[in-house]
Design a protein that fits this description.
Structural class: mainly alpha
Strand content: under 5%
Oligomer: single chain
Length: 247
Amino acid sequence: MVWGTFTITHIISLIFVFLLAIIMYLILKRFNDKVKTWVLFLFSLTGVAAIVYELIVPGSPLEYLPLHMCSINAMLLPITVLSKNKVMGNLLLLWCLGALIALVMNQVAASTTVFSTYFFVYYGSHTFEFIVPMLLFSLGLIKFDFKYIISTVLITIAIYTAIHLVNCGLNEYFIANNVLDPNGNVIQVNYMFSLEPSNPVLAIMYSIVPFDYWYMYLAFPIIIVYLLGVGAINKLLISIKSRKAHA
């Protein structure tokens, strides 16, 4: 059975992501912070395992360097869970959306067979890269703060810019030195999709601003609105809890 994009199988798998998040929240909220931390830490390692898998199994590690947003998310997540660092936590609260988008716009893995190894690697890692940051906040292990919106946006821009420069440098090197993939083609990378869109949503953005690197900046107004919305919801929930506590 092929996973597909917006097939019944795909839609069910997306619903399961949210059900799993709710179930994990309902179970973990009963435990102390130490237990919550170690459980989330264990699940956060799925992304690291996926990075190791992709560096080894496909046989073309230069095409699978951990330079996509989800891969960087995967590397930062275990550290963030253990350290409870507010800057990184608030950053990953944004970046976890990239993991959700990768599950929804799953063209990269859509042709894989459900229950295959690659399906579990892709689906499992992105699922927990989305769920774990959300649970860090919903379980109260890290607090949202409006002041971190600025650092979140600036760090995202800085890393995105650095990755774009890496893309350009690597691609020039691969062409100049005729570095080939296992199929005999010159390797060309597009980490964080700075050079061209990878899904229909990014394609719309590129059609509006048809320039590599710059087209992705259309996402930043949406990012800011999202972060402000998360902050407003967080503030509302805290207010409701406070009223119940004093009732």
